[in-house]
Amino acid sequence: MKTTVLLVVTLSFGFSQVNAQKVMTKFKNEVCECFRKMKPETMTTTTAVKNGISNCFVTAATANQSELKRNKIIDFENPTPQETSNLWKQVFEHCKEVTTAVYGRMNLLEKEAIDKSFEGIITYVQDIRLSAAFEKMGITKKMMTDRLSNKGEWFDTLTVYYWAGNYAKIGNNANVTTKIYHRSENTIYSFNAKEAAVCSVQEAEDLDLSGNPDKPTIIEIDSAVTIMGMPVKIIRMKWKLSQIDYYYNADPAPMSPDLFSEHSSEAFATFIGMTNCLPLQVVTSVASMFVIIQTAVKVKPVIVDEAIFKVPELVDDESLNVIKIPGIKMMRIKK
C-alpha cells in the first residue's frame, strides 16, 4: 500500500513538473516571437524599444497568467523580485540572439540620446509673487520670505545638475532642500539634506487626488521676453488648480525627449518632447494664491559627478503615511 501511494505521489510530481515546463516554454516562446516581430533595428528611440519590450512581456503574461500561477512559476499579481528576475533570465537564455538584438538596440539608442543631450549645471534664481488676497491680509513678499527663511525653507538660488536623464535640484537654504530624479526608477526623492529625517518618494507622474492621470491643457504663448540675452518662447501647462509656464530657447541646453519620456510629473516629458531642450525659466502658479519664478542665470556644460544623485538609505514607516496621497510615499531616512 505504501509503495502504491509513493508511486502515485512520484508520478503526480513528475506530471506536475512536465506541465510546468510546458507552460514556461509556451510563455518564453511567445515573448521571444514578439521580440522577433519588433524589428528593433528599425526603431529610432529608446522609448519605442522599451514600449515594445513591455508590450511583449505584458501580452505573454496576460495570456499565460493563470497557468503560470497554477504551476507556481510566478504570480503576476504579487511577484517576488526573485521570481521576476528568474523569469527574465529564462527568456534571455531561451532566445539569446533576439534578446541581445533588442537590448543592444535600446542601449545604442540610449547612448546616442545621452551624447546629444546637455550634461552640466543650470543655476536659477528664485522669486515669489503673492496674490492680492495676501496683500489684503497685510502679508507682504518680504514677510513671507523672511518667515520661510527663519524656518530654513526659503532659497533664492537653485542649482540643478543634469546627467543622462537624471537631475538633482539643490537649494541654497539652511535646510538644503534637495530633489533628486532617478530615470531608471522614474522616481523623485525630496528631502532636506541637512539633518534630514524624512524623504518623500514620488512616482514622476501627474496624478489627481483619485490617483488617475491628470493631463494638463497645453497652450503655446507668443513672447517678447529675453533670458540671459536670448529670446525665449513659452509653453503653458494648465491644470484645474495650478499652471506652469516653461520659457525656453533650444540652444543652450538641448535635451533628448527619450531621457525624460516617463517623467509626466509637472508635464516635464511633454515639455521636453515639444522643445527638445531644458527650460530657462519656470513659472509655477498654485491655486491663484502665489507664483514661484525660477530664472536661469547660468548654463554651464560640465561633467557631473554621479555621486550628486545619491539618495540616503530609506526605511518604511507607516506612521508617516496615515494620510494617503496618490503616487507619494513618505519614508524615514536611516541614521
Cα(first) to Cα(last) distance is 62 Å
Number of helices: 7
Give the total of beta strands.
15
Classify the helix fraction into a percent range.
25-40%
Short description:
With 335 residues, this protein is of the alpha+beta class. The protein has helices at 2-38, 46-70, 81-94, 96-115, 132-136, 141-150, 268-275; strands spanning 120-130, 157-163, 166-171, 177-182, 187-192, 198-203, 217-221, 226-227, 230-231, 233-238, 242-248, 281-286, 290-301, 314-315, 328-333.
Secondary-structure topology with pairs:
Blueprint lengths: L1 H37 L7 H25 L10 H14 L1 H20 L4 E11 L1 H5 L4 H10 L6 E7 L2 E6 L5 E6 L4 E6 L5 E6 L13 E5 L4 E2 L2 E2 L1 E6 L3 E7 L19 H8 L5 E6 L3 E12 L12 E2 L12 E6 L2
What does this molecule look like?
By secondary structure, this protein is an alpha+beta fold. 36% of the residues lie in helices and 27% in strands. The strands form two sheets. Strands 7-10-11-12-13-1-2-3-4-5-6-15-14 form a 13-stranded antiparallel β-sheet. Strands 8-9 form a two-stranded antiparallel ribbon. Helix 1 runs antiparallel to helix 2 and helix 3 (81-94) crosses helix 4. Residues 2-15 have low confidence and may be disordered.
Tags for this entry?
27% strand; alpha+beta; globular; 335 residues; 7 helices
